[in-house]
Design goal:
The protein is α+β, with helices and mostly antiparallel strands. It is built from 14 helices and 36 strands. The strands form seven sheets. Strands 18-19-20-21-22-23-24-26-27-30-31-32-33-34-35-36 form a 16-stranded antiparallel β-barrel. The protein has a seven-stranded mixed β-sheet with strand order 13-14-12-15-11-17-16, covered by helices on one side. A three-stranded mixed β-sheet has the order 1-7-6, with helices on one face. InterPro entries: Bac_surfAg_D15, D15-like.
């Protein structure tokens, strides 16, 4: 008989999962890059893949408060588990559950389930002949699982037919057929069929079919009668050759409404009742709140007479009156006088006030307002007590009485109410009409009043260990007053400031605090007013196809002081618009921006230092500037989809300054330069590109990269002068080149002089990349690399104006790659849900200015000879990711 004490338990810890795509005749063409990661997500037994997996397993066992050692039971002559509860504290539980990682024990049942799920997944992707098997290798109580996959040939779409016995539904299907996801030649996957089902469901529901669901849509595949396609080589310009894949005819059918009715019912909206301040009561309480009903109607006004030019093909309406003819480009056009109807929204207190030509659009339900003595209030008193105007709410609800039901308008209503930034939790509900009419719905729009005021804040801490050790502190705060004019407007005041303190080389004999202890002081304030609508010419709104348009008016001030070297003040004002087009495209347009930079106050010694060593900065700081400009930016954010959740972010912007004023200058004073209170205006063109890519390797691992390019070109009135320093580019700081302080890099390989580290450029090039990983759900780390620099397009510096120790001009040349600054470092991320705390430590690898001369007399650019941390590193403490 075997001795139970010497029994060996056949438990194995999974060490590795391998997914192998076996060699086959068919070469995967579509989604070959994503397929591996999608298959990996199906695995049910995943061991720890982090670089510290051994440490995490040790932490798990050392802090395990519930252990199950096996002991020999003399009565049953068996080895049985004996559960032991050990005392623990909160720290042990946290280490055990959050930091530690439990070893994954081999389970053959889960392996079989994984194989089955992989096969089903491949079938849904269109690989209906896929083969999946598994192999397990055991070594030293460790299991190595290999999943072997043969996808086989997928079935491709040949033709698509949309069918329905309901003639009205069939007409809708023919109308939207050209937008189908099932294009000929694509894989006939379940994923595409589900997308097609959802697309058709929305198309039908947006045309009045309230009760229609995707369950009415069925798919049938016919591989017998489909076209047979022979294999073809791809050739030089075709990366997806035909390999003889089987084809299928897809039949998409909309089933009848019921066994007794073929036609699906259409619904119209009979009432739209809006509750702008829904009262929330607890479930166990019953309280009826009496409300007043107000009726919002569209009232016809006097027609507006307008002259209209009838182009070729335009028809003259019976009510048009012919005025004259007009010749344009050799062609004769008719000009007619046309009456255009005008409507105005009016709020009425009762249905009896509705006139014959009025169109009822909404019913507004508000709480009854009474005086303190219980007497009814006047209409003027009621209006003053309402926190938002009736027209603002009505304009935000596109659903109107008499319309057919539309799911699109339901979604648009929620979105418009959120844009007002006044309410929270908007809800749109449809119920059977209280009037009892057939195929009639009541639309109930409910929302809760949001917070009137809001506050926000942010901070950053930066510790620099370069030539002069310093500590930088920056903070940002904002205050919002929402719905300030009862039209959804938001008034916002934001203040930001930063101080950079010296930690070494303090002058103990100087009593001036700014000169003794402060490197840089920067403060700015801005007051903004947001309108949740487009305030401008309707032509622009139609031309740009604006959605969720917001108008912004701002007034700001900025003050910058570097020790006692210089002081600069600037004011700016602007009016702009923000809007979206679809869920992924955002636009910003500021048609009028005016920036006035007062003449800086320079300390004489610093002025002389700049004149000799940083000519470009000296030119920028030697005069005041008036910058009338216009800027435009476009942002695209791709959706995060797939297992890898890879996504793109792209932002492009440009700014034009001084063009309109230049035209005025040529008209008013063609022989002299126009000035405003003795200040010249600037002319330049500035553009920037920001491209980011996020690549998710696994659940807790990702790589995020960013490329930034920018250039500013002066011309016209600024051709012979420098670009204002406030518009130039700079690098360094918490969200840029993290191994350097802000404005400590460039231009080019031009060496900065102690006391004049304020490096700016006309051209910017920067690349950042981070490998981010998570230890658990809220603590993570990062390894990053930063590369970049700024350059001048031209320079006023010559060999005669620059001392011998600073011979480089910083101008961009074809050998720019030799002037790139390179830094690296590690970071810690703590995700606290409402914000991310970030700690980064950056180390310089290459300094384009050089660290000094080596023994052989050449300049040392790389931080390897020897590797030095002191004076070549930077510690950053901030909130939020750098990009």
């Amino acid at each position: 008989m075997e001795n139970p004490r010497n029994r060996v338990f056949e438990e194995h810890m999974i060490a590795k999962n391998a997914i192998n795509f076996l060699k086959q005749k068919y070469k995967i063409q579509e989604d070959s890059e994503n397929l591996y990661y999608e298959m990996y997500s199906i695995l049910q037994q995943i061991p720890d893949r982090s670089i510290i997996k051994g440490f995490r397993q040790m932490v798990y066992h050392l802090n395990d408060t519930l252990s199950m050692p096996y002991k020999f039971n003399r009565d049953s002559l068996q080895i049985l588990p004996d559960t032991i509860h050990r005392p623990s504290n909160g720290l042990q539980r946290w280490l055990h559950q959050k930091v530690g990682y439990e070893p994954v024990i081999m389970d053959t049942a889960k392996t079989s389930t994984t194989v089955k799920n992989m096969r089903v997944f491949l079938n849904q992707k269109g690989y209906y002949n896929a083969e999946v098997s598994s192999e397990v290798a055991y070594k030293n109580h460790k299991a190595f699982i290999s999943y072997n996959i043969k996808t086989g040939m997928p079935i491709l779409v040949d033709t698509v037919a949309l069918l329905s016995k309901d003639t009205l539904v069939r007409a809708i299907l023919e109308e939207v057929k050209r937008f189908t996801f099932l294009k000929p030649g694509v894989r006939a996957s379940v994923e595409r069929m589900n997308k097609e089902r959802s697309r058709l469901e929305l198309a039908i529901k947006n045309r009045g079919y309230f009760e229609f669901t995707k369950n009415y849509i069925v798919f049938k595949m016919d591989t017998v009668n489909a076209t047979k396609v022979a294999a073809k080589h791809g050739g030089l310009f075709n990366s997806n050759p035909e390999q003889g894949e089987p084809r299928a005819n897809i039949y998409v059918e909309v089933l009848p409404y019921s066994d007794t009715s073929i036609t699906h019912p259409k619904y119209k909206v009979c009432n739209v009742m809006i509750t702008p301040n829904e009262y929330i009561i607890k479930a166990h309480k019953i309280r009826k709140i009496k409300k007043d009903s107000f009726f919002i109607v569209e009232r016809m006004l006097k027609d507006k007479e307008k002259r209209v030019v009838l182009k070729e093909g335009d028809i003259k309406l019976p009510e048009d009156s012919l005025m004259t003819t007009k010749t344009i480009g050799g062609k004769e056009y008719r000009v007619v006088q046309r009456s255009l109807p005008r409507v105005k929204k009016v709020t009425l207190n009762s249905r009896s006030e509705i006139q014959e030509n009025d169109k009822l659009v909404h019913i507004l339900l508000r709480k009854i307002v009474r005086n303190k003595d219980g007497s009814p209030t006047t209409e003027h008193q009621r209006r003053r007590s309402y926190f938002i105007r009736d027209k603002v709410i009505s304009d935000a609800v596109p659903v109107e009485i008499g319309q057919l039901y539309s799911y699109r308008l339901e979604q648009e209503t929620r979105r418009n109410i959120n844009v007002l930034n006044v309410f929270r939790a908007p809800r749109v509900e449809y119920v059977r009409s209280s009037s009892g009419q057939a195929n009639c719905l009541d639309c109930l729009v409910k929302m809760q009043r949001g917070e009137k005021q809001g506050f926000g804040g942010d901070f950053e801490i930066n510790n620099n260990n370069t030539n002069v050790s310093s500590l930088g502190v920056a903070a940002f705060g904002s205050y919002q007053n929402k719905n300030i004019f009862k039209g959804g407007e938001t008034f916002e005041i934001s203040v930001s400031g930063g101080l950079d303190f010296k930690l070494t080389k303090l002058d103990s004999f100087d009593n001036n605090f700014w000169k003794k202890a402060v490197n840089l002081f920067d403060v700015s304030a801005e007051a903004s007013l947001y309108f949740p609508r487009f305030l401008g010419l309707p032509f622009f709104k139609k031309m740009f196809k604006m959605e969720n348009a917001v108008t912004k008016v701002s007034l700001g001030y900025r003050y910058l002081q570097q020790s006692t070297d210089f002081q600069i003040s600037s004011f700016y004002t602007k009016i702009g618009y923000e809007w979206t087009r679809g869920p992924y495209h955002t636009f910003h347009w500021n048609p009028a921006v005016i920036n006035l930079t007062l003449e800086p106050v320079l300390e004489p010694a610093f002025e002389a230092l700049l004149r000799q060593n940083n000519r470009a900065l000296y030119e920028s700081l030697s005069a005041s500037y008036l910058i009338p400009s216009m800027d435009f930016s476009y942002t695209f954010s791709s959706p995060t989809g797939g297992i890898k959740n890879s996504s793109w972010y792209f932002k492009s912007s440009f700014e034009l300054a001084g063009n309109l004023v230049y035209l005025m200058d040529q008209v008013l004073e063609p022989n002299s330069r126009l000035q405003f209170f003795g200040t010249d205006y600037s002319q330049y063109f500035k553009t920037e590109v920001d491209l980011r890519y996020s690549y998710k390797i696994g659940k807790y691992h990702s790589v995020v990269s960013r490329l930034m390019l920018g250039v500013i070109i002066p011309y016209g009135n600024s051709k012979d002068t420098e670009v204002p320093f406030v518009k130039r580019f700079s690098l360094g700081g918490p969200s840029s080149m993290r191994a350097w302080l802000l404005r400590y890099i460039g231009p080019g390989d031009q060496a900065s002089v102690s006391g004049a580290e304020f490096q700016l450029g006309d051209l910017k090039m920067e690349f950042n990349s981070e490998y981010r990983f998570m230890f658990n759900s809220w603590i993570g780390g990062a390894i990053f690399a930063d590369i970049g620099n700024v350059w001048l397009l031209n320079s006023n510096s010559t060999a005669s104006t620059i001392p011998q120790r600073n011979p480089n001009t910083g101008v961009f040349t074809e050998r720019f790659y030799e002037q790139l600054a390179i830094g690296t470092g590690i970071g810690l991320r703590v995700d606290l849900s409402f914000f991310v705390f970030r700690l980064d430590y950056g180390i310089q690898l290459r300094e384009p200015q050089g660290y000094g001369l080596k023994e052989n007399g050449t300049v040392q650019y790389w931080n390897f000879e020897p590797f030095v941390f002191a004076n070549r590193s930077n510690l950053v403490i901030a909130v939020g990711y750098p990009f």
